Amino acid sequence: MNQNQTMSKKDLVAILAAALMSFVGILIETSMNVTFPTLIKQFHITLSVAQWVGTGYLLMVSLVIICSAYIKMRFKEKNIFVTGVIFAVIGDLICALAPNFWILLFGRLVQAGGTGIVLPLLFNIILERAPLSRRGLFMGLGGLIVSMAPALGPTFGGIVVYFLGWRDIFWIVLPFMIVALFLGWFSIDQVTKLSHPKFDWLRLALLTVMLVSLTLGFNTVGTLGWLNFEFLFSLVVFALATWAFIAASQHSDRMLVNIKVFTLPVFTLSLIAYFLIQFTNIGSNFILPNYAQLVDHSTTLISGLILLPGSLLAGMLNPLFGKMLDDLGPKRPITWGNTIFAIALIAFIAFSLHMSPMMIMLMYIVFAIGMSMSFANTMTFALGQVPIQYEADANAIFNTLQQFGGSIGTAIASSFLASGSGATTAARTASGTQHAFIFFFVLICLNFIFYHYAFKLKPKEA
């Protein structure tokens, strides 16, 4: 931690390098959402298969982030950063040159590994180098990157695909990765001592089984329904892997993540609410651009741009929402945000069978404002209630669940779109969209219960 009140130019460049790489990594998480109709036609695949370029990416990022505490303690930050960028660049080139879908998916997974390495490093660099008087500002900028980049992805992807082609998404971001690599190479120094803890490969394997089985299970719902054997089997595998993970955690002295943080009710309740917000947010960001193309027959340009006003406005209001928490406490801004979020979902339910691009854009503005007001403040509130010895684990868990929430949200959103009723693709998509938003609305209503008990049980004033 920087005890001085100023920062060197080298430290600022280090933060810039990590921020640039993190932004690019998160931007391309969702930039492929608008390309699914194109990929389906070009590679002759179904929507449930095409969505894996998003779901698989988020799933891989989740698994790498959970290892971030160990990686930071074991390796030099410059080496971590360079390794992350190299993975991202190699994956990017594989995607740009992919001759078929499965090579494209492989490239996305390699690329995701790089993002999962660099993203938590951004916040570590800020915490170590930013003075206390300016830490809130830099952490806020980091949070802005995490919250805005996924929403800007469909806009970026839509513009590129409309004027160029989906492969150009990867060629355009490549120079920014190279610039970030050089900035980080010359600016990131080691400021903390390294150690050599033993890594818990068993628990990582069990966690992988947990996340992959759940994702694969939800991915079958669109074609086989909610009560199909494969889905139920995946739930059984998930439950068994979870039990084994908890049992192994109680007896392991190797490093991965400390699950004792889940004994804190405020943390657990806030984490569930945070997961459901991200689940709904990324799921909706998947549905709306595809709705615009498949139902309204809009171009990829229009389908990407419809999310831009809401994303930009919510991003600009983020500092205000954070100040509201500082001035008013967590209860009011989080509850207000969840209420606005729920109202937007009601609007989507009411009009989802017949939504024009302009209607989507206006309703998404309300949606994005409500989401942003509750999302970041939920994490801030929860981490503020966690004892210092659990802070690193709590931060890793929040970041992991943020990515996994997006992965599951994409898988389930795809399942709803594929399982809609109707004689045409447009009718089935509209029907599936309405069912999805009904489901999202129920989840966000559950958040009112989680927030009620979280505020009631908080161990100290926030």
Automatic annotation (TrEMBL):
<feature type="transmembrane region" description="Helical">
    <location>
        <begin position="12"/>
        <end position="32"/>
    </location>
</feature>
<dbReference type="InterPro" id="IPR020846">
    <property type="entry name" value="MFS_dom"/>
</dbReference>
<dbReference type="GO" id="GO:0005886">
    <property type="term" value="C:plasma membrane"/>
</dbReference>
<feature type="transmembrane region" description="Helical">
    <location>
        <begin position="52"/>
        <end position="71"/>
    </location>
</feature>
<keyword id="KW-1133">Transmembrane helix</keyword>
<keyword id="KW-0472">Membrane</keyword>
<keyword id="KW-1003">Cell membrane</keyword>
<feature type="transmembrane region" description="Helical">
    <location>
        <begin position="169"/>
        <end position="188"/>
    </location>
</feature>
<feature type="transmembrane region" description="Helical">
    <location>
        <begin position="261"/>
        <end position="280"/>
    </location>
</feature>
<feature type="transmembrane region" description="Helical">
    <location>
        <begin position="436"/>
        <end position="455"/>
    </location>
</feature>
<dbReference type="InterPro" id="IPR004638">
    <property type="entry name" value="EmrB-like"/>
</dbReference>
<feature type="domain" description="Major facilitator superfamily (MFS) profile">
    <location>
        <begin position="14"/>
        <end position="459"/>
    </location>
</feature>
<feature type="transmembrane region" description="Helical">
    <location>
        <begin position="359"/>
        <end position="383"/>
    </location>
</feature>
<comment type="similarity">
    <text>Belongs to the major facilitator superfamily. EmrB family.</text>
</comment>
<feature type="transmembrane region" description="Helical">
    <location>
        <begin position="300"/>
        <end position="321"/>
    </location>
</feature>
<feature type="transmembrane region" description="Helical">
    <location>
        <begin position="333"/>
        <end position="353"/>
    </location>
</feature>
<feature type="transmembrane region" description="Helical">
    <location>
        <begin position="109"/>
        <end position="127"/>
    </location>
</feature>
<dbReference type="InterPro" id="IPR011701">
    <property type="entry name" value="MFS"/>
</dbReference>
<feature type="transmembrane region" description="Helical">
    <location>
        <begin position="231"/>
        <end position="249"/>
    </location>
</feature>
<feature type="transmembrane region" description="Helical">
    <location>
        <begin position="80"/>
        <end position="103"/>
    </location>
</feature>
<dbReference type="Pfam" id="PF07690">
    <property type="entry name" value="MFS_1"/>
</dbReference>
<feature type="transmembrane region" description="Helical">
    <location>
        <begin position="200"/>
        <end position="219"/>
    </location>
</feature>
<dbReference type="GO" id="GO:0022857">
    <property type="term" value="F:transmembrane transporter activity"/>
</dbReference>
<keyword id="KW-0813">Transport</keyword>
<protein>
    <recommendedName>
        <fullName>Major facilitator superfamily (MFS) profile domain-containing protein</fullName>
    </recommendedName>
</protein>
<feature type="transmembrane region" description="Helical">
    <location>
        <begin position="404"/>
        <end position="424"/>
    </location>
</feature>
<dbReference type="InterPro" id="IPR036259">
    <property type="entry name" value="MFS_trans_sf"/>
</dbReference>
<feature type="transmembrane region" description="Helical">
    <location>
        <begin position="139"/>
        <end position="163"/>
    </location>
</feature>
<keyword id="KW-0812">Transmembrane</keyword>
